[in-house]
Amino acid sequence: MHAQHHPATTILLKRDEKQFETTVAFNNFADGDTHCLIEDTTHIRGASVLVRHYLYPNQNEQIVRLLFLVATLRDLGARSIEVFAPYLPYARQDKAHLPGEIISSKLLCRIIHESGVRVLHTIDCHFMKGAPETTVEGLKIHNLLVQGMLVEHLETITNEPYHIIGPDAGSAYLADGETMKKARSAHYDKHADGSIRRSVDTLDDKHLTITDKTIVIADDMISTGGTMIRALENVKERGVPNVYAMTSHGLFLQESFEKIAVLTTGMIYSDTIAREGAVPVVDAVFEEIANHQL
Ligand code: R5P
User: Fold this and answer.
1) Which residue's C-alpha comes closest to atom 13 of ligand 1?
2) Considering 3, 58, 124, 143, which has the largest number of Cβ atoms within 10 A of its Cβ?
């Protein structure tokens, strides 16, 4: 068997008003089969369990690992199991666009629920569009936003007044809300064919002259970077001198990190996906969940 490098899974247990922690070793057999071993099982029977498990990168393997872990915890008599997954993969496929197409976000929720997870805590879940909670296929999802922490970080690197916008209608919620007092929202329209309208129909002078020189484009995730890059180009074409890219989940595929870096004054992304320079949010969110749930 060989171990794969991945951010470690944390298992917190609470029983008889006392808190314990245990660890799990995940490995793969030579043929790829997954193996899961909880190292100290002493305090599991009757305990409330909170697991922090990263479902990305290697999402398929990480999903299987989570299911194996939850099943093992149940077999060992855990009383209730909640999971914190900082980034929820498959959340973008939340409808079938073609007949016969999988709605993978629903399936994932169903199998996590059926495995015995009571609540899934996650950060800025794509299909929730900023809502604090929902239930999908029986799975209760608690969605935490870290936009406030990202904005705090932004304010450590610039003193300029700024204006936050989303690159499409789906991300407009990131420009609103209590933490966004200085911001106003605007968005571009993303058409059904995936193209983004780059005219001034939805992003006009009244949006861009509010705080003059500094614009932040905020999106829940940057995957290939296509959406963010088009939005940045649009804003830059309009002569805005300081443009920041902000995201909860920076997957930064296809060299998009480098492409976005050359277009921006700064990039702000959280550590739900590990990368140098990420704003640390995961530990603080986990602590908050643990204080509340355990
Ligand atoms: C889409 O609705 C999301 O909010 C993101 O805008 C999108 O998923 C980002 O993907 P990409 O970086 O590949 O354009």
Assistant:
1) 224
2) 124
pTM: 0.90
| pLDDT tens-place string over residues 2-60 | 554 568 999 999 999 999 999 999 999 999 999 999 999 999 999 999 999 999 999 99
Nearest CA to 26 among 39, 41, 43, 12? 39
- Cα of 227 to ligand 1 centre, how many Å? 6
Give me the residue spans of the domains in the chain: 10-144+281-293, 147-269
Domain 147-269 CATH (choose: 3.10.180.10, 3.40.50.2020, 2.60.40.10, 3.40.50.300): 3.40.50.2020
CA–centroid distance, 98 to ligand 1, in Å, is 19
Ligand 1 centre distance from Cα of residue 219 (Å): 8
> What is the CATH topology of the domain spanning 10-144+281-293?
Rossmann fold (3.40.50)
Q: Do domains 10-144+281-293 and 147-269 have the same CATH topology?
A: yes
Ligand 1, residue 167: give the atom nearest the CA: 6
